[in-house]
Specification:
Blueprint lengths: L1 E7 L3 E10 L2 E11 L6 H4 L4 H20 L4 E6 L1 H5 L3 H12 L2 E4 L2 H12 L6 E6 L4 E5 L2 E5 L3 H8 L3 H11 L7 E4 L2 H10 L3 E3 H13 L2 H7 L6 H18 L3 E4 L4 H9 L19
Parallel strand pairs: 1-4, 4-5, 6-9, 9-11
Antiparallel strand pairs: 1-2, 2-3, 6-7, 7-8, 10-11
Helix pairs in contact: 5-12, 6-11, 7-11, 9-11
Length: about 290
Amino acid sequence: MRVAAVDLGTNTTRLLVADVVDGALAEVHRETRITRLGEGVDARRRLLPVPIARVRNTLTDYRRELESLAAERTLAVATSAVRDAENGEAFLGEVEWSYGFATRLLSGDEEAAMTLRGVGPLEPGTVVVDIGGGSTELISDGFRTSMDIGSVRLTERFGIHQGAAAAYIRAQLPDLHVTHALGVDGTTAELAGLAGSATVTLAAIDDTLEWLSVSTEEERRARLIEPDRSEVLAAGVLILRETLRHLGLDAITASLRDLLNGAALEAAALPEPAEGEAPPGAYTCC
């Protein structure tokens, strides 16, 4: 079965199209766009018109892409920004009708569980770190937590004041006994790209944070995998540095599997569309 999963995140809107065979995924297409859906949500508790328009434009393109690839079922999952917004559920209803996607608003615990399903079995002592735009999830054997610290949220709340932001981060971090970390987020992927290695040391993270504080926007955009992440990357790196320091770890490894993989597996379990019926959005989306 060919399925599609869409992640309506606080900072990014992502697409995965994959074939599901005997419970395993074979990736066909993956795409990420920086849409900043959570812009202003921390202060105003609402999804704003301009960010919504950015996401809608992206979803229009994604629907064309997944249809061209013959995806049979699509699940769109929403996380921190939509959870926090008073109009979040109304927005999801609009997405479902306009594009014909099944939608699911994930709680922090559900987001962590779906991420774990996407990553697969963990080696003993591993903590999965997922730094989003609005929240950060930590997942290990028998432990899951979602904290209201994310790259967009901290950038809007603290700006360039890293000391205050670091104190805010440390106040929310739990005590865990782990031996190594697996990063499933865009921040870790950017750090791995800058380091030229899937495993990124704490020393390299410190160096990157220093570089981000003195580099120009043009210099940052020239080196990043996703240049539009430039504005909020320092906050994401700060979250990661404080998390690793708190856990007593000196490195993190970037994962190729994440929440989208878990959502794709969930999409495969969706009910089969009724034969002959036009899906919601068939005449309104594209």
